[in-house]
Write a structure and sequence with these properties.
This protein has a six-stranded mixed beta sheet. Strands 7, 8, 9 and 10 form a four-stranded antiparallel beta sheet that branches. It is α+β, with helices and mostly antiparallel strands and 370 residues long. Helix 1 crosses helix 6. The chain is built from ten helices and 17 strands.
Length: 370
């Protein structure tokens, strides 16, 4: 394992209570963050085992050893198991071999959100379930502080997203369906330097009033709003942007809604500063929407953390008294959604650097009429 990941693992224990002596990490983005290892969850349990007293070890399927060794190196002990009718029982036997050879001291920590019962049950013969703590607060605190390498990956992802979106705008026309728009985006992402298309939502006309609808087959008519929400991944790191455009004149009410949302987004971005509570960003944007009379039509938080996941802590929502720190990356995405009329969302990716707020996404925010 490289020094970068070793430093992250050491920092993780500094974030955890002293009582936690052993950490178990199932396949997840936190596993990738702490080791560089990217694995999907399957019927075969896998655990990275970290300890204050000893170096890392891995419980894993035998057929994964070559791939995992390529990332973790040969100095990390593997406790492997072969395929069996019951892979969970085979994994338990491998875990018992690990427990026989290592001191599983202190309380344990696992990430509640990513650890399945399959992995969790491996631990309970050696740790009192009452003493097993949630790893996520400590892992999230580390992951929220992006280093320069992570920042560069996110900048590149944002640049690609902007370019794809601008080119797609030039192609959209009356008669295109929501799926046509998304397909055009996907094709451009494939031809870009992004690792993958990370998914998206395209809605048209009155369906823009649904904040999180599935992309469908509704066709664009003259005067329709078109809401496009998508991102890409670069080196594992996400971008996430939303722009709402019009194909022809959308009418006075939609224009009014658009300007309210654009101003709310500006207020949210301008509130970004080190030491400011996350809830204050939400409040700054929401005040604009409330004052315009659309408060009941802004049903979601202002934004979410961004990094190895498209949605990760911290969350920009009322009640989150945590404060912004250098290295934090997140979205600012107010929206107003009026049934029978339409909706508008404007979303940007923001990074807090030593020099202040850096808005990564640069696609113009003024209403664009195609």
């Amino acid at each position: 394992m490289t020094e970068r990941y070793a430093n992250r693992r050491s920092a993780l224990f500094e974030e955890l209570p002293e009582s936690v002596g052993t950490v178990y990490v199932a396949p997840s983005e936190t596993l990738r963050y702490l080791s560089g290892l990217s694995m999907h969850q399957s019927e075969r349990p896998t655990l990275l085992v970290l300890s204050r007293a000893e170096g890392p070890a891995v419980v894993l399927p035998e057929l994964e050893t070559d791939r995992v060794a390529d990332v973790l190196g040969d100095d990390v002990p593997f406790y492997t198991y072969g395929d069996a009718t019951d892979p969970t029982q085979a994994a338990r036997e491998a875990f018992e071999r690990l427990a026989d050879g290592r001191e599983l001291s202190g309380d344990a920590a696992v990430e509640y959100r990513s650890t399945r019962v399959l992995e969790y049950n491996l631990l309970t013969d050696h740790h009192d379930p009452e003493s097993i703590q949630d790893l996520e607060p400590a892992a999230a605190a580390l992951r929220a502080r992006k280093d320069e390498s992570e920042r560069e990956s996110m900048r590149k992802a944002a640049r690609i997203t902007d370019h794809v979106l601008q080119e797609t705008f030039e192609e959209i026309e009356v008669g295109w369906s929501e799926r046509d728009v998304e397909r055009a985006i996907e094709k451009r992402v494939i031809d870009s330097d992004a690792d993958t298309y990370s998914g998206g939502i395209v809605t048209v006309g009155e369906r823009t009033a649904f904040p999180h609808a599935n992309t469908g087959h509704t066709e664009i008519e003259r005067g329709d709003l078109v809401m496009i929400d998508f991102g890409v991944r670069v080196d594992g790191y996400f971008s996430d942007i939303t722009r709402t455009v019009a194909v022809g004149d959308p009418g006075e009410e939609c224009r009014q809604i658009y300007e309210v949302v654009r101003e709310a987004a500006r207020a949210g971005r301008e509130a970004v500063a080190e030491g400011v509570q996350y809830q204050e960003l939400d409040r700054a944007a929401r005040e604009v929407v409330d004052d315009a009379g659309y408060g009941d039509y802004f049903p979601h938080r202002l934004g979410h953390g961004l990094g190895l996941e498209g949605h990760e802590p911290p969350y920009l929502v009322d009640g989150n008294e945590a404060t912004l720190d250098v290295g934090n990356a997140f979205t600012v995405e107010p929206g107003v959604y009026v049934d029978g009329v339409g909706g508008v969302r404007v979303e940007d990716d923001v990074l807090l650097t030593e020099d202040g707020a850096e808005v990564l996404t640069e696609t113009p925010r003024e209403l664009r009429i195609l």
